[in-house]
Amino acid sequence: MDLTGIGQAATAAKDILGMIFPNKTEEEKAQLAASLALIQAQTDIDKTEAQSSDPLEHWRGAMGWVCAIAYLNNFVLSPYAVAFGLHLPQVDMTQLGELTVGMLGLGGLHVYQKVNGK
What pLDDT, in 10s, does the model give residues 93-108? Predict the structure, then answer.
């Protein structure tokens, strides 16, 4: 039993200081837990995709590789081939851009479907 009130004053001061200077360890634990939850959610989505037999998922992956190879050709291979006297045709950037934007849109919708369990 605290007759002088010093214990209560110390507890109140500790609570006030805790509001001004929060415990970083608790905040860091909460941030880590949130990060781990996001990583686990993405891992679950990846596992679901890997087990799926949906041909559209494989089609999207193949189209992603087509886009990547076309960009590699346009921005890496063709410029360096000129230095060796070779001429490599380039993919039209208008069509490649439309394909890439479409793929990104499908990828976003795909993630939306997976997150919502459809």
Answer: 888 888 888 777 766 7
With a cut of 70, list the residues of the chain below it in pLDDT.
1-7, 19, 21-23, 52-61, 106-107, 110, 118
DSSP one-letter code for 85: T
Residue type, 6: I
Residues 57 and 113 in one domain: yes
Coil, strand or helix at 22: coil
Residues 60 and 115 both lie in one domain: yes
* Domain match, 4 and 41 both: yes
26-to-14, 18, 32, 118 alpha-carbon distances in Å = 16, 11, 10, 36
